[in-house]
Amino acid sequence: xxxxxxxxxxxxxxxLAQKRIPWEAVTLGKELGRGTETVVYQxxxxxxxxxxxxxxxxxxGETRYTFRTELEIVLGKLEWHPNxxxxxxxxxxxxxxxMFLVMELFEGGPISKRRKWVSRRPxxxxxxxxxxxxxxxxxxxxxxxxxxxxxxxxxxxxSVHTAKLSDFGVSRTQGGDxxxxxxxTGTYRFMAPEVIRGEHYDARADIYSYGILFNELLTGTMPYxxxxxxxxxxATAVVSKNLRPRLVKASEKVPTAVVTLIERCWALDPQQxxxxxxxxxxxxxICGDVGTASxxxxxxxxxxxxxxxxxxxxxxxxxxxxxxx
Length: 325
Description:
By secondary structure, the chain is an alpha+beta fold. It folds into two domains: about 100 residues, Phosphorylase Kinase, domain 1 (2-Layer Sandwich); about 210 residues, Transferase(Phosphotransferase) domain 1 (Transferase(Phosphotransferase), domain 1, Orthogonal Bundle). It contains ten helices and nine strands. Strands 1-2-3-5-4 form a five-stranded antiparallel sheet, covered by helices on one side. A two-stranded antiparallel sheet has the order 6-9. Helix 4 packs antiparallel against helix 6. The longest helix is centred in the C-terminal third of the chain and has 23 residues. The radius of gyration is 20 Å and the shape is globular. This is Protein kinase domain-containing protein. Keywords: Magnesium, Metal-binding. GO terms for molecular function: ATP binding; metal ion binding; protein serine/threonine kinase activity. It comes from Cyanidiococcus yangmingshanensis.
């Protein structure tokens, strides 16, 4: 298993060496989740609660590669960020040579488990999506693409006031190998048209997924769950018919500018999509309005418009051009 990290750049290898944790420094508690070839436990490391992800010793090469990619990115390439899950280190179990990751325990779990609940509280959705936008802005500035943004990869704290992006197993560097950057990667419900078509894509594919996620949390429904189509049929319709999930309706709590932002994020043309920095700045304004709004999260359209009129005009213009394609 140690040979798995030999291909990593020297600078990254040095950082990984500094983050190596001896197995005896970790204690395991209850099981939190189980995948086909990984298990996640609640544990303890340096007198703090953590989550410990363990890769099966007999895992397939593809799974080993994904696991290795995650540790290279989160431990070797990224610094600490308040909206990215904190990873403390990695190691190898001596009894079976299996690799493990030690990470922050974010006890609220994935936002996918609170989809219906949070959809009735749009003011919380705006905070969550602002945090996700900040995380994307950070990794995009480091020339990385997440490639699998979805509700199960966004974790929240118990109060659902802070969100963190997780699961970097299929993330890649922008401008990398053409074969990699045309690969069909991600979850079909959140997959950008250019990814489905096997075309070259960049960070704007993450922005498309972001729009799908934003709409999911505001509507409280999984994308395309009302279409009764197979994954292949859905993916085909996304490309050929510009199919998108049922769009949230503007209301007292959901400003028109937010609805149009979602349309702009999932635009067919990647050039029509905003940057993560632009989205984060817009949601800073929206969250500021929510902070002064009524307790139920109602947001006056006029307040939002005052704060973001130039953004909204640009958003409406781009959305109209997208619908005309």
